[in-house]
Amino acid sequence: MALLYIIIIVAFIDTFSQLPIIAPFAISLGATPMLVGIIIGLYSFSNIIGNIVSGYWIDRSGPKIVLCVGMIFVGIVLFFYSIVTTPQQLVYVRFFHGLAGGLIVPAAFTYLGSRKTSESKGRIMAFSGASVGIAAIAGPALGAIISGRFGYDYLFFMLTVLMIGCAVLAIFFVKELQVISSKAASPQITSLKLTKPMLFSYTSIFLLMFTLGILTFALPLKVEELQLSAELTGPLLSVFGLVAILIFVLPTNVLFDKWNNVHLMTIGLVIICGALVSLSLSASFIHLLLAMMIYGGGFAFIFPSTSATVVEHSGEAKRGKAFGLFYACFSFGVITGSFFAGALAVSPSFLFLIGALCLLLIVILLYLFSWKPVI
Questions:
Q1: Claim to verify: residue 34 and residue 109 sit in the same structural domain
Q2: Are the C-beta atoms of residues 101 and 66 closer than 8 Å to each other?
Q3: 78: domain range?
Q4: Using alpha carbons only, how large is the chain's radius of gyration in Å?
Q5: What DSSP line would sit under 153-203, residue for residue?
Q6: Does 182 fall in a domain?
Q7: Do residues 284 and 169 share a domain?
Q8: What is the per-residue pLDDT across 62-90, written as a single tens digit (0 to 9) for each?
Q9: Same domain, yes or no, for 171 and 62?
Q10: pTM, whole model, 2 decimals?
Q11: Residue 120 pLDDT more than 90?
């Protein structure tokens, strides 16, 4: 079980470590501003394709083969970052990186959801959320420090070694899960139905990543608007991850087993709304810090409850497909949030406020729909 959490950390470090360096790396190769935007967004686009392919493949062959092939494929693609010489070559590498990376996370979470263990699913997903939080904190710092001190190639070599190393460990130490045939199992087990809780889960993770896309775009601008040092953006982004991790690993994680998942998701989304409003009204670094702590609380409520809902409402024969769609919504939310933020020519404060109002409206409609009796 611990190895799976390590794999999740490495998989997300692979993504997060490139956030601060991919734009300058593309520019160093001679990419135009428009091409830089395409290079950044292409990873998430192909990641969606990889998530969906992963889901179907997991249900046919089991998560182990998908997990190992995905990590080996990513390790190989990461090496090619170090030998590209033109922006056009980087476009191809980014596409295949996102495609291969999309295979890994659904497979890892399918494993976690299918493990026969005495631990409750809510706590398991809380610890998986902590793994993502650790990667979100360590990844950007790691990428910036290593590439800054030793160059981009060293970062890509390090990620290659980490990914291939984890693949080798998975091959030898991750056990196979029995693949349940759709013909052999009962319809109740094999069917993947988009129940109201499942739709709530998919929509909630999309909205969470949508707000994160807005946050990534607008927070540096908000820091600049308040005439603060640009270096403060990194610590502010780390704060929400730290708060989320504390909620995941402390005794507060019992909430994820005692409370209804739909209620947890709703509370989390409302907290995110409050965080966005707070960011909009913030007039100092302390205010921004408090707002990001609030955001971390919302993130902590949403991530485990959405994952646990997918586990509870998907049969084992279709769990791979369920998590594939889940992480496709995850990736699509990032793309949509960034595009939404970039398309609106407004101040960062007004952008946070618009995001909060849109989110609140969707949450109200979603909550009413989820509890409407089925005729």
A1: yes
A2: no
A3: 1-176
A4: 20
A5: HHHHHHHHHHHHHHHHHHHHHSPPPPPPPTTTS-HHHH-----HHHHHHHH
A6: no
A7: no
A8: 899 999 999 999 999 999 999 999 999 99
A9: yes
A10: 0.81
A11: no
Compute the CA torsion angle 161, 167, 171, 172 (nearest 10 deg).
40
Residue 280 lies in a domain: yes
Only one residue has tokens 């780390």, namely 238
Q: What is the CATH number of the domain that holds 315?
A: 1.20.1250.20
Contact call for residues 305 and 207 (beta carbons, < 8 A): no
- 146 and 203 both lie in a single domain: no
What's the mean pLDDT when you consider all of the chain?
85
Q: Closest Cα to residue 14, out of 76, 66, 65, 57?
A: 76
145-183: per-residue pLDDT in tens? 888 888 889 999 999 999 999 999 999 988 876 555 544
Q: Is residue 24 part of a domain?
A: yes
Mind listing the pLDDT tens digit for each residue in 96-117? 999 999 999 999 888 887 765 5
Task: Specify the number of domains making up the chain.
Answer: 2
The full length of the chain comes to 375
- Residue closest to 97 by CA, chosen among 331, 261, 308: 331
Strand extents, DSSP E, the chain: none
250-262 pLDDT, tens digit each: 877 777 778 888 8
Element (H, E) at 52: helix 33-61
DSSP helix/strand/coil, 44? helix
